[in-house]
Amino acid sequence: MITAGVDAGLRNIKILILDGGKIAAKGIAPSGGAGRAKAIEKLWEETLSSSGLRKGDVSKVVATGEGKNDVLFADKLVTEPIADARAAKFLLPTAKSVVDAGAAKTRVVTIGKDSNIEEVVLNQKCMGGLGLLLEVIADRLGWDLDEMARAKAGETVVNDGCPVFAELDALEALNKGASREDVAGAVTEAVAVRLHSILYDKVGVSKDATVFIGGLAKNGAAVNALQKRIGANFTIPDDPEYGTALGAAVIAAD
Amino acid sequence: MLQEYGKWPESAWTGGEAIWKSAKKITGGADVGTTSTQVAILADGALCGFANIRTGYDFKAAADKAFALALGNSGLKASDFSGIFATGFGRRNAVYATGTTDEVLAHAKGARFLYGKDVNTVVDLGGQTVKAVRLYDWDRVQEFKISDKCATGFGRHIEVLCDLLEVPITEIGEKSLQVETDPEPVSTTCYNFAFPETVGLFRHGYKEEVYSENDVLATHLFTVAWRVLGTVGKLCPLDIGDISVYKELGFTGGLAKNPGVTKRIERKLGVTALTSEYDPALAGAIGAALLA
Amino acid sequence: MKTFKEILENRHAYAKDWKARTGGKVLGFYDTYFPEEVAYAAGLLPLRLLASHCEDALTDRLMYGNCYCTRDIFNQFMLGRYDYVDGLVSIESCQWWYNAFDTTLIEFPELWSHYLFTTDYVDARTSKDAVFSELKIFVKRLEEWIGKTVTDEALDNAIDVYNKNRALLRQLYQLRRFDRTAVLGSEVMEIMLANQVMDKAEANVMLESLLPELEARAPQEDGVRLMLIGSETYDAKLEKLVESLGANIVTDELDNGTAYILNDVIPMKNRLMAIGLRYLGKPHSALKDNVWRRRPEHIYQLYEDFQADGVIIAKQIYCHPHGSDMYAVWKLLRERNIPYHTFERDTTLPYEETKLGVEALISMIKPGMTRLHGWSK
């Protein structure tokens, strides 16, 4: 059975096609603002053709993410935490909790019996935009997001309470001649502090049975800083940004 | 990496020999800001060269590059200047400067240059901060207000918004003005609250009325204008409603080129801002050059 | 630790050392309305809890919405930096202090604690009776805790020590008077802050030897003379920034500045009433400046006394008393043509960003300065 999951996020759209429990194809594209419905349609066709499939081959499509209403070809819409939990169980059958850190939002979901969600913690308003902060800083440093891995902890420290202030502090450090690696290190550390705070907002996450997905999970420096901070060992899939889309595709296969 | 939608065009110009060859006194000004860097060269008080570029990660490189661009092929050297003043967040990086000046005064001076002697209220719309200045009839600052820390970054993040919405930054102002009435603004507390709210307006079915792209842009720029007005309004907290103090208004800074913000502020204050043939982003650099 | 600066920087070590030396208990308090004399008479070290800037992954979920000072103080408890504190007392003050007190007690129920009520309308007819009766309860609870009575002699001694301390600090402030500026704002602020966490008898000894030294200094050119008002601060970074721009903070209206030292306990037979009256008669803090609105005039008086040229209003982000106070202060400053600059800060002070406004204020004042130095010569 071939199913697909579409995750229309604030920054990117992710599509993942699942064929009998195996990933058959995946695609990612910018969310496209007002033209999001069209951007999703286009990415859908591209993803299909890259795998040599036709629309008729896909028996069910489940959409999730902030822009799920723009997925006009979806058979079903699900809210994001449910998809997160299913993805976590798919990736790690013993998973007890899942963290999804994206461009705008961070979610922590604890999983109960039968992959049902037990509790969901969303970031408070002041802690939104952590992924975007990393992107904006990378852009300012003249780097790709992946290059943020060059971050190394130095003497620079930025505000860890607010992304707006953090950016200001980073600019100040650059102004004083701090190296790019230093500034990236400080911002990464601040993001880790924030994530730590969200992770323990209501419930602590399991230290060895937590799956970490979302675009931010790709940032090794931030994840390592976080793991060190709480002494945990997360399970991170190869392409963590497709995590929620994977969950949607798994739900479609039910 | 962010895409190109948020990147405004850089510019530079150097006047012909006739202007600066005969000049008795050449002065320069550099405004090294958080988001953009400008350099202006004045020959006997007339603009004979400028550059306006993005600052990037290396403040010093940006300061040097802008200076080189403004000099162009004129053959002028730093030693030909009778003075070069630096201002802005990153002023310490303009190593060729002979002195520094504060930004409030620089923008006030620059606004008088751009908009003539009449201008008495200057609103500098920068990448990170907003400054509102009231001037005496002579070139002295009477009072100034700087945006709260929480209002930081509204200018800079319009660039980020443009990238996400895939609308070129030079067009958003005009586009946003095409709506008949402005929708209600989103959160004005801080940029980080406003931003996801703005983008979230695209959520189909979330609200009864479906927002168009222009509506969303209008909402966001109205929010920015609202936040700017918070700073401008502090200039006369005791006679709220008395807009007479804003009669001769001039905008400076990068955001001054965004009619979506400036027109909305004008509308609220019931005035029409003065216009200039020069790029308003240059005000800080011109002001510094005048002071040099 | 020889200097006030060293004590301020190592304040936890100082308090631990004090405990080891005297065997006494340390009582932490939040707001300067707390009548320290009473605790001092009971043999305790009344310790002002000062904020710093600690890494913080906690307070967003435990104290969301509070100002960063109160959050940081709680955070320091969680990080174990205040592990030597034996008791906590909260004086009726701003909501954020109360929240910090409350949250700390949830996490550390073993701390001795007392909530000391004082009226918000400090000038009301019945305020003194209310405060007197609250102080009686407080003394009773203290006696139960430490296991001995607080005698009149001990109260008299505490009043003497604190009155002397305030007098010495007033002398220190006089060293920045217009005709003879001998010290910098940053030096004074460091002494004021260190004094808040010290045994006042020890502070008095240090002040007595320091003051003649400072007085003997040659008078300095202080450039633009500024007054600092607003929320309290916990370091001298802003003063140093001002000094780096060729100006000096010459006076202030801060809870841990002039408001701490301007009035004394006037000895009365009823010692507790005398102490209560001192705190009610203190210059109004922003929170207690109700109905009578004496604060703006008081600020103006200090401005004139110290012949300042302009005012910096530094407010902590999320500080509600100083947020609501601002309008009245602005109104007065504007009416009297006093240049001022308002900005918000939190537990850190970003240099360039802060400089932006302070520098503009200074260069706005400079060309119009009419007070020539050396008038008195």
Structural class of chain A: alpha/beta
What's the total helix number of chain C? 16
CATH architecture of the largest domain in chain A: 2-Layer Sandwich
How much β-strand is present in the residues of chain A? Answer: 15-25%
Instruction: Assess the beta-strand content of chain C as a share of residues.
Output: 5-15%
> Kindly, what is the distance between the CA atoms of the first and last residues of chain C, rounded to a whole number of angstroms?
40 Å
Largest sheet of chain C: 4 strands, parallel
What would you give as the CATH superfamily of the largest domain in chain A? ATPase, nucleotide binding domain
Average predicted confidence as pLDDT of chain C: 91
Question: What's the CATH class of the domain at 6-148 in chain C, please?
Answer: Alpha Beta
CATH class of the largest domain in chain A: Alpha Beta
Q: What is the helix tally of chain A? A: 7
Q: Total number of β-strand segments of chain A?
A: 9
Structure, described:
- The complex is a heterotrimer of chains A (254), B (292) and C (377).
- Chain A is of the alpha/beta class and 254 residues long.
- Chain A has two domains: 108 residues, Nucleotidyltransferase, domain 5 (2-Layer Sandwich); 141 residues, ATPase, nucleotide binding domain (Nucleotidyltransferase, domain 5, 2-Layer Sandwich).
- In chain A, 36% of the residues lie in helices and 20% in strands.
- In chain A, helix 2 packs across helix 7 and helix 3 runs antiparallel to helix 5.
- The model of chain A has no long low-confidence stretch (mean pLDDT 90).
- The radius of gyration of chain B is 19 Å and the shape is globular.
- Chain B starts with 10 loop residues before the first strand and ends with a helix.
- Chain C is of the alpha/beta class.
- Chain C has a domain of 143 residues: 3-Layer(aba) Sandwich (Rossmann fold), CATH 3.40.50.11890.
- In chain C, helix 5 packs parallel to helix 6 and helix 14 packs across helix 15.
- Chains in contact: A-B, A-C, B-C.
- At the A-C interface, helix 4 and helix 5 of A face helix 16 of C.
